[in-house]
Task: structure prediction
Amino acid sequence: MNNKRLSSFLAFLAFVCVVASCKSLPNADHLPENPSKATPAVATPRGMLDTKRAAELLRKRWANASPDLKQLAVLEEQATGAPLIPGNKVTLLFDGPATMRDMMAAVRDARNSINLETYIFDQDPVGLEFAELLMEKQRQGVVVNIIADGVGTLATPKEFFERLRAAGIKVLIFNPVNPLQRPGTWQLNNRDHRKIMVVDGKIGFTGGINISETYANSSLFRSRKKPSTVNSEEVGWRDTHIRIEGPAVAALQYAFIDNWVRQDAGELPPAEYFPRLAPAGDKVMRVLATTPDRDSEIYKSLMVAMNEAKTSIHITSAYFVPDQQIVDALVAAARRGVDVKLVLPAVSDHDLIMYAGQAFYDQLLKGGVKIYQLQVAVLHAKTAVIDGIWSTIGSANIDRRSFIHNYELNVVVLDPAFGRDMEAAFNEDLRSSKQVTLEAWRNRPWKDRLREFMGRLAEYWI
Result:
């Protein structure tokens, strides 16, 4: 989200703020603390496994995991209602260029269908290249369906989408700004912030990357270059995406189709959207697709994992504006000896959000939480790894907008080997970050304090 798009969004929200009621986040005191059963639910393409078979499968998958992993999985299931899905292959993708190459390669190999859901689809070199590729696949007989958010695409000319439609692609603009263009209930404040692509029902992508040239300038992630200054004129964008193969792809596909139906957009063209999915790897994961009318499952999942943390909480967050319950959970973890580290932005595409989050720094630093600011990159990743075994990647930021108002999708991977990969990525970001100390923070300029105050006033809506 950049300043131009956000300014347009806030202008349209001016009257909504007056009449809309404010939804609150779930009460942390009501989150589960004791497992209701010994084994979490496990879903497969052939249905739910019985308890004995589920326990046997998890014993094999988690042979080298700590005993706490099964308890965490049960508590998370109690909080979210989402089952575990085994048998997946997951591949981490870092930054825009690598992600777009992998996504475009999957599109080129498509034989049946491509479903794309994105917050931003820009008419720029990257967007045009992606659009040309999608139109070519449509001409080859592949069914292509697109959901793009109405606010995220405000800057994209209507002619861009009309050209896609003329090529035979089904295009849905999600919750358009103009209420006359919404056949069902108009919900301007509820945005589709998801980033999903499913190819042939067999390969899925999700994470933080939109279809935009914004991400074309990669960050210094895993580069031998050393960061110099946050005033660099050519900062890259640091983001994380994930490629999924295996049974969990069906959950991404269902999330796409569910959003299509929710928009009263008519029938999707016939295609084999749900082919039989054999195991493709050994990763056990959970897919959390949240909507404004549900109970903030991504928020509850994060809270449960933080409350259960024994050794480490490592969070990378592009837009970090926590509520008091998240602050309390982080401080409580630090005080019980957990290594709590946050990688947050030093340079952002939206200063108001950054300053709103910085208003919590004093409390976090005083409570023992370590804060690092990523240098010479616009941070856009939304990831966390806890105790080296619980990892999450997705579209949701740590703020009220993501948890309450937006349609978001995060995946949770419960796997020690994948956790090690996530830890390695986190440590790479630390290498390019500068630690914020409590003493230095308390000596920051008064103009920054004023900006933090203004950010806090607007935090519910930004």
